[in-house]
């Protein structure tokens, strides 16, 4: 009977722990733990008091103090207040002697305030501090019980004293076990929360890193230690088109990168895989220029586990560099023109005057020679004029005109040149061409240069097409011939000063055209196919509102 009572009391005292373990299975339930512990402790407290003790008439050998202390310490001030009221009310129905009432008053006046004073340190302390405070509160709460045992148990009743000591040690053990179990459960849930946060942060960082790699303008290809592609970004997929991600990942890098046609790049990857830190290479693929870097890919232990290929599209940068070089050459030409043209033209004017004088006084059979000399002098003078045009850095005077009006002024001269060459001119002008701010003299020079270049590129019976059309942001001039075309390797150098595809050309005509277009805030492009012909496309920007007619 006694052992059954002890087992029942033990199970009742452990009820808060069982309830808490059953409740605390999900991290989101952690904030409700005090409520669960207080509720289970209240039930345990009532059940412990309702069970009759076979050892003492006043039921002083009882585990009721265990759920009271556990619920009070973990429930905070509100939970402790509720359990104190429940404890005092239930005990009032059990006490039958004046001594028991006095002990209950001592418990309420001394022990309860002490337990309340330990709640805040208990909740703010660590596990060892909570165990220590739990023991202190338990020993303080046991003082009235010890007095009750001394009052009810005679000294010669060893059996009753042994049971009392056993209950005291058992209560302390249950207090220790309860606090440790609750703390372990809470720590386990906190670890789960931290693990979820770490996992979530890790996934977010991985996602952020992948997004950064995808939006990066660099091509990134990751290769593991076995030589297989493990990760690529969007720029890499564009480079490796028509491959998609499923067709790239997991494949050997040689089978993927062979399309780049660069054995030196593949050799660089091999050297990095064998221990080299970094290899660089410049490759050209699909008319684009790429600066590639292959470096070692390391894990968290700083062990080499593969390689990463990073490629930077240098095409625009190289084009910008070429433009800067071109501008520097144009600037050099302008400086040369500004410094020497006047010094050259003065003696040339004197020479031309004396040649004309000699021509008048020489025999008729020598006139053809002097005519050739005068033509060459005029040709040299035209070259000097081109130099002067390139040297113009000042803001040219512009007036509001329509390109079709300028073209109509030139058509008699253009038609005459075409007739002399046996060629045809086709003109297509869209209706209502938008007006632009133009320097008419320079625009005429631009049109004549482009038209004559097209005529010279064709044989007789060739057809030159001149088109004018409105576009979204301005007006477009297109001069198209059906000549032999220009090779791709020469297209990039067309606007360089002194570069020419003609036998007797100076290489200044197209450079002059570029200079004129840039002074008019436009751009010029060239499209050419071998055997089909060449098109020069000049786009002029429409003047802003309020600026129209400002130069008129």
Automatic annotation (TrEMBL):
SMART domains: HATPase_c, HisKA, PAS. Keywords: ATP-binding, Kinase, Membrane, Nucleotide-binding, Phosphoprotein, Transferase, Transmembrane, Transmembrane helix, Two-component regulatory system. It comes from the Bacteria. InterPro entries: HATPase_C_sf (IPR036890), HATPase_dom (IPR003594), His_kinase_dom (IPR005467), HisK_dim/P_dom (IPR003661), HisK_dim/P_sf (IPR036097), PAS (IPR000014), PAS-like_dom_sf (IPR035965), Sig_transdc_His_kin-like_C (IPR004358). Residues 339-544 form the Histidine kinase domain. It is an enzyme of class 2 (transferase). Signal peptide: none annotated. The keyword Nucleotide-binding applies. The chain crosses the membrane at residues 6-25, 32-50, 65-88, 95-115, 135-153, 160-179. It catalyses: ATP + protein L-histidine = ADP + protein N-phospho-L-histidine. GO terms for molecular function: ATP binding; phosphorelay sensor kinase activity. It comes from Cohnella fermenti. Its EC number is 2.7.13.3. This is histidine kinase.
């Amino acid at each position: 009977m006694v052992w059954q009572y002890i087992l029942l009391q033990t199970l009742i005292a452990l009820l808060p722990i069982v309830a808490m373990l059953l409740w605390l299975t999900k991290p989101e339930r952690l904030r409700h733990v005090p409520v669960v512990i207080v509720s289970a402790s209240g039930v345990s407290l009532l059940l412990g008091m309702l069970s009759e003790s076979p050892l003492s008439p006043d039921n002083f050998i009882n585990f009721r103090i265990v759920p009271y202390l556990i619920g009070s310490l973990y429930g905070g001030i509100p939970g402790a207040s509720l359990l104190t009221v429940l404890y005092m009310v239930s005990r009032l129905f059990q006490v039958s002697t004046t001594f028991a009432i006095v002990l209950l008053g001592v418990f309420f006046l001394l022990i309860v305030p002490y337990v309340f004073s330990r709640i805040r340190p208990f909740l703010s302390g660590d596990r060892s501090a909570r165990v220590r405070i739990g023991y202190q509160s338990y020993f303080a709460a046991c003082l009235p019980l010890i007095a009750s045992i001394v009052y009810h148990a005679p000294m010669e009743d060893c059996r009753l004293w042994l049971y009392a000591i056993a209950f005291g040690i058992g209560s302390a053990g249950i207090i220790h076990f309860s606090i440790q179990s609750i703390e372990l459960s809470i720590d386990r849930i906190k670890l789960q929360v931290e693990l979820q946060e770490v996992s979530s942060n890790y996934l977010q960082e991985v996602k952020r890193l992948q997004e950064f790699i995808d939006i990066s303008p660099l091509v990134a290809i990751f290769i593991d230690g076995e030589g297989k592609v493990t990760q690529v970004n969007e720029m890499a997929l564009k480079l490796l088109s028509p491959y998609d991600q499923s067709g790239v990942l997991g494949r050997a890098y040689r089978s993927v990168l062979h399309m780049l046609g660069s054995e030196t790049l593949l050799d660089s990857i091999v050297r990095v895989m064998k221990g080299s830190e970094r290899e660089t290479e410049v490759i050209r693929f699909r008319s684009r220029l790429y600066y590639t870097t292959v470096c070692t890919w390391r894990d968290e232990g700083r062990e080499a586990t593969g390689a990463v290929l990073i490629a930077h599209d240098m095409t625009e940068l190289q084009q910008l560099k070429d433009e800067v070089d071109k501008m520097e050459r144009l600037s050099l030409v302008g400086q040369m023109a500004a410094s020497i043209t006047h010094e050259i033209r003065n003696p040339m004017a004197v020479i031309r005057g004396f040649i004309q004088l000699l021509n008048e006084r020489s025999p008729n059979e020598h006139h053809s020679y002097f005519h050739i000399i005068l033509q060459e002098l005029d040709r040299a003078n035209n070259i000097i004029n081109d130099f002067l045009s390139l040297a113009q850095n000042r803001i040219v005077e512009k007036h509001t005109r329509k390109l079709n009006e300028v073209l109509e002024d030139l058509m008699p001269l253009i038609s005459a040149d075409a007739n002399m060459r046996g060629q045809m001119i086709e003109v297509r002008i869209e209706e209502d061409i938008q007006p632009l701010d133009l320097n008419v003299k320079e625009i005429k020079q631009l049109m004549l240069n482009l038209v004559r270049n097209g005529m010279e590129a064709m044989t007789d019976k060739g057809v030159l097409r001149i088109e004018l059309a409105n576009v979204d942001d301005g007006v477009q001039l297109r001069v198209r011939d059906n000549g032999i075309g220009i090779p791709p390797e020469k297209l990039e150098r067309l606007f360089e000063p002194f570069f020419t595809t003609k036998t007797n050309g100076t290489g200044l005509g197209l450079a002059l055209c570029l200079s004129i277009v840039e002074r008019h805030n436009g751009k010029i492009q060239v499209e050419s196919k071998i055997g089909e012909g060449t098109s020069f496309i000049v786009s002029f920007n429409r003047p802003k509102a309020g600026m129209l007619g400002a130069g008129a």
